[in-house]
Design a protein that fits this description.
The chain is built from 15 helices and 22 strands. With 492 residues, it is an alpha/beta fold. It is globular, with a radius of gyration of 23 Å.
């Protein structure tokens, strides 16, 4: 399925760790899996402590040297060129993301274009980072400077490798920070490709470094490194706790973007066709491996049966295949993850969960070892079940039925996570009540994933700390300094 041209690009991207503007072999290598075939397609460098030390040193040098000296408007131009190159190359970066992550080809290409949108947005912000003046008596002048925080350690997840990299790298560079990125061991390719893209765009050596490797080796070495000034982590709740502990050791700020069990509530007055279409599309994107998927569907009882009929008709029509064949769903990132999905579904069924569709590994022609799971819908009557509270991170939609809007809203806010939430209703009063009662970083009405690159995104409760996207997404890369000046010293 991989032609010669693409194979050559893959080998070129994986030729070494990106450190200080060079490619270096790294201390070891590790195979990268195509989850669609279940087979390794390339060996990539596996960074260790010594590689992380080298990368942090390079990032530190650039943060005090070349990148610090680059004028903000020039930073913006480099980010704009990065966006242009990502769009120009999306036609081959997309397929590599697809092979590495398992997602459908159109989504791999869309991710490269989405990454470009982050660079475009923050290109415009680079020369607009301003401080304040503080009212003072007499001729004293007091101002705030918003300085680059320094070296940003960015630890990336497996599901949106390039999108998440761009989401953190673009605002960090706009702020004047430099970066050491550690991509997921499951999806290391595009963070390495980004090094070549940034190099072509004119980024000085060392301003962006990418060290692929295992979480407990390169990841832990980076998170605990005494030479970093800030951490941006995107991944699971369990690893997020480790990252916050590492940040506490060095007293550095950490933004942690974690998991979710995001509710989509459909009230009795809603447009049911629209609700079924939106729930299907967003739940099964990338086979449900999306932190902000609407994985908990809460239906007001009068419309529950009608909505479920429409939903099942849509979900049963979804196709599953190798990402390069561009079906609706591709593969699951790892064998460990697919086992976790199977355990979650089995446990839910054992405690009374009613399976409406899916619930098994489908056969995919030509990919006997591929990691696939069928799109699955389960109705659960007991809201205390783990499948209602825990993230499955696969194509499994859990459905609860509520007796009225009041109960639906209470269920929507009952979980440990708080990433996204939506209500489908034509009653504006109900929509406002929903947003008041539900703790989530993003609330939607009659849709899902509105807002785009410009709107702040992030978690409440155990979905995390900090905000990505929008102007809020730059704040973590800035530190505030207050400077107060008395133009002439007072006479004693
Ligand atoms: P994960 O926690 O397994 O891994 C995330 C990253 O942490 C990887 O790069 C991994 O190598 C690294 N890592 C693992 N152990 C480490 C350690 N001890 N020290 C330092 N780094 C370590 O998560 P994943 O499976 O890659 O991603 C899926 C999770 O990410 C899901 O929970 C999903 O909801 C979440 N996610 C959240 C967002 C968001 O914006 N909130 C976006 C995407 C994914």
């Amino acid at each position: 399925m991989i032609d010669e041209n693409l194979r050559a690009r893959i080998a070129h991207a994986a030729r070494g760790l990106a450190i200080g503007g060079r490619r270096v072999p790294g201390q070891a290598t590790m195979p990268s899996l195509d989850p669609g075939t279940g087979k390794a397609f390339i060996d990539v460098p596996a960074g260790m402590q010594a590689d992380i030390d080298e990368a942090v040193t390079a990032a530190r040098a650039a943060s005090r040297g070349a990148w610090a000296k680059t004028a903000p408007a020039e930073r913006g131009k480099i980010l704009r060129r990065t966006a242009d190159i990502l769009r120009r190359d999306a036609h081959w970066i997309g397929p590599i993301e697809t092979i590495d992550s398992g997602k459908p080809l159109k989504d791999g290409i869309a991710e490269a274009n989405a990454a470009a949108a982050y660079f475009d947005y923050y290109a415009g912000a680079a020369d607009k980072i301003e401080g304040d003046t503080i009212p003072q008596p007499g001729d004293v002048v007091s101002v705030t400077l918003r300085e680059a925080v320094g070296v940003s350690a960015q630890i990336l997840p497996s599901n949106f490798p390039l999108g998440t990299a761009a989401r953190g790298v673009a605002p960090a560079l706009a702020a004047g920070c430099t970066i050491v990125a550690k991509p997921s061991d499951h999806t290391p390719m595009t963070a390495l490709i980004l090094a070549d893209v940034l190099d072509e765009a004119g980024l000085p050596p060392g301003a962006y470094n990418a060290v692929s490797g295992k979480g407990d080796a390169a990841g832990a070495a980076l998170a605990t490194h005494a030479g970093i000034d800030q951490i941006t982590f995107t991944g699971s709740l369990a690893t997020g706790r480790r990252i916050l502990a590492a940040a506490a050791t060095n007293i550095v700020p950490a933004a942690v973007e974690l998991g979710g069990k995001s509710p989509l509530v459909v009230l009795a007055d809603a447009d049911l066709d629209a609700a079924a279409a939106v729930a299907t599309k967003h739940m099964f994107t990338h086979a449900g491996q999306v932190c902000s998927a609407p994985s908990l569907l809460i239906l007001e009882i009068p419309i529950a049966d009608a909505l479920l009929d429409k939903l099942i008709a849509r979900v049963s029509a979804l196709s599953v295949d190798h990402g390069l064949r561009d079906a609706n769903l591709g593969a699951i990132a790892s064998a460990g993850q697919i086992a976790h999905i199977e355990r979650a579904v089995a446990a839910a069924r054992k405690t009374g969960g009613e399976l409406l569709t899916g619930g098994a590994r489908p056969d995919v022609a030509g990919c006997p070892d591929g990691l696939y799971y069928a799109p699955t819908v389960l109705v659960v009557s007991d809201a205390a079940q783990p499948i209602v509270r825990e993230e499955v991170f696969g194509p499994v939609l859990t459905v609860l039925i509520a007796k009225d809007a009041d109960e639906a809203f209470a269920l929507a806010d009952a979980g440990q996570y708080g990433l996204c939430a939506s209500v489908f209703t034509n009653d504006l009063g109900r929509a406002f009540e929903f947003q008041r009662r539900v703790s989530a970083g993003q609330i939607y009405v009659n849709d899902w994933h509105l807002g785009g690159v410009q709107a702040p995104f992030g978690g409440m409760k155990r979905s995390g700390i900090g905000r990505e996207r929008g102007l809020a997404g730059i704040e973590k890369y800035l530190r505030l300094k207050n400077v107060s000046i008395r133009p002439r010293a007072l006479q004693p």
